Amino acid sequence: MIHLSSLLCCLILLALFIGTHAYARYKATNIISEMVDIYYENEDLTTVVPNEDNDTPLNVSMTMFIYSINGFDAVSGQMEIAISLSLSWHDYNLYSNIALSDINNASYVPVPYSRIWTPNLVLLNDVQSVERIGSSSYYVTYYPDNGIVTWKPRIILKGSCSPNMTYFPFDRQECSFVFSAWEHDTSQVKLVIPDSSWDTSMYEGNGVWKITETKSETYVGSSGQFDSYYAKFSITIERQPLFILVNLVLPILLLAAINGFCFLVPISNGRVTYCITCFLTFVFLLQTVQQFLPRTSYPMSILAIYVVLMMLFSAVVNIITVFTMRLHLAPSKDKVPKWLQVFLKTIKCRICRECKKKTEQNEGDEIQINGRVTFAGQNKVGIVNDHVYEKKKKAVKEVKWPEVARSLDIFFFVLFLGVQAVFSVFFLVPLGTRA
Fold first, then answer.
1. How far apart are CA 172 and CA 309, in angstroms?
2. Which stretches are annotated as coiled coil (predicted)?
C-alpha cells in the first residue's frame, strides 16, 4: 500500500512538471501569436516604420562585427568578408500594445523575421545583386521591458573596391561597404553608429592580409527622390609580402643582376642563347606580376614598370650582343676605323695615359747642372751639354677587330650593370621605404 501511494505521488508530480512546461511553451507560443497579430491586424504594418510619431525619425543603431577576410581580388576589384551586423531600435508598435504583464514578465521574446518590422538595409556597392539584407531563417529578439528590438544577421559581403597597386607587394588597400535604409528618407529612419571602429574580437586572421584600421560613419545623401541616411564601414588592410618577395621579387632582382653577364660569356659557348633566355624569362616574370594586378592604366605598379624596363634592357642587350659577335668574327684584313680606335682609347683611358707620359718626358728633359736649368742639349746660357737626350718615337700598334670586340664587351658589361643598379635603386627603394 505504501509503494502504491509513493508511485501515485510520483505520477502526480511528473504530470504537474510536464503540464507546467507544456503550459509555458503554450504561453510562449501564444505570446508570439499575440505579437504577430498586432502586425497582422493590418498587413501593411510590417512596412510601416514603428516610430513614436511622424515628426521624429526612428534611430537604428548599427555595429559591425568582422569574422574573417575571405579574399581580396585586385584584378576584378572585389573584396569578400564574413561579418555580422548588430542592429537595434525601439519598436513603439509592440511596446504600446503589449504590456510586460501580458507576457508573464519574460525577459525577451524571439519573433520570426518576416513577422515584424525590420529596416530595409541594402549594400549599395554589392558586386552580385542589390538585395535586402536578411532572410526568413533569422529571428528578431524583442525585449518587452523597454520595447527594444535587436537583430544580428550574419552575412557574407562581397563589395566592389578600387585597388591601389602602386607599391605592390607592400600595398595597402582601403575598402568601404555602404549601407542604406532603402526607400526611407531622413524623416523616417536615422542610421546611428555608436562606435566609430569595428568589433574585431572574433576576427580569425588571414595569411595574406592584416587589418590596420577600421572606421565607421554615417552621412546624409541624396538618392534622387529624397535624402536618406547612409552608413559607411571602411577597412584598411595591408599585404603580408613575404611570399611575393621570395617567389617573385627575388627572382626578378637576380635575373636583372645576371642579365649583363652575357657580355662575359664566350661567343662559342652560346652567348646568344644566354641573352635570349634572359629576355624570355623577363617576359614570363612580367606576365606573372600582371596576374596580381588590375587591368588599369593608373595607378601603375612600380614593380611592373621596373620589370618592363628590365625587359627592354634585355632586348637592347640582345641587339648589342649580335653587334659585338659580328666584330668578333670580322675578317682580320679589314682595318678598324679611326673613330672606333679613338673611342677604344677613350674608354681604356689610353689618351689620358699618353698625355701624361708626354708631360713627364718634357719635364725629364730639364736637368739641373750647378744650380742652372738646362734643356735638351743646351742650357739657358747656351752651354752645350755632354749628353743630349734624343726623343724616340714609338711605333703605333695597329688595333685588330678581336681586341675591339673584347674591349666593347667589357665596356657594355660595366655600362649595363651600372645602369641596372641605378634603375633598381630608383624603383625599388620606394618599395622598401613603404615596407
1. 24
2. none
The reported pLDDT for the residue numbered 262 is: 87
DSSP 64-104: EEEEEEEEEETTTTEEEEEEEEEEEEE-HHHHTT--GGGGT
What backbone torsions phi and psi does residue 239 show, to the nearest 5 degrees? Answer: -75, 140
Q: Which of 118-132, 136-150, 234-248 has the highest mean pLDDT?
A: 234-248
173-201 b/e with 16+ CB inside 10 Å = b?
A: bebbbbbbbbebeebbbbbebeeeebeee
Residue for grid cell 734643356: 375
Residue type, 236: T
Boundaries of every domain in the chain: 40-240, 243-331+415-434, 338-399
The answer to whether the beta carbons of residues 302 and 166 sit under 8 Å apart is yes
* CA 6 – CA 2 distance, rounded (Å): 6
Fold observed for domain 243-331+415-434: Methane Monooxygenase Hydroxylase; Chain G, domain 1 (1.20.58)
Tell me: cis bond preceding 169? Omega within 30 of 0 counts: yes
Q: Grid coordinates standing for 341? A: 680606335
pLDDT in tens, 298-341: 778 889 999 999 999 999 999 988 888 888 777 767 777 777 77
Among 137-141, 167-171, 257-261, 372-376, which is the least confidently predicted range?
372-376
Helix, strand, or coil here: 61? strand
Give the residue among 61, 88, 96 at the shortest CA–CA distance from 149: 88
User: Considering the domain 40-240 in this protein, what is its CATH number?
Assistant: 2.70.170.10
Give dist(CA 208, CA 238) in Å, integer.
8
pLDDT at 402 over 80: no
**pTM (predicted TM-score):** 0.73
Contacts 24+ apart (CB under 8 A), 243-247: 243/208, 244/168, 244/169, 244/292, 245/169
Closest to 213 (Cα-Cα) out of 179, 177, 243, 175: 175
- Distance (Å, rounded) from C-alpha 213 to C-alpha 270? 54
Of 315, 282, 284, 289, which is closest to residue 303 (Cα–Cα)? 289
Say which residues have a Cβ less than 8 Å from residue 186's Cβ, sequence separation at least 6: 57, 220, 226, 227, 228, 229
The two domains 40-240 and 243-331+415-434 share their CATH topology (first three levels equal): no
User: 278 near 255, Cβ under 8 Å?
Assistant: yes
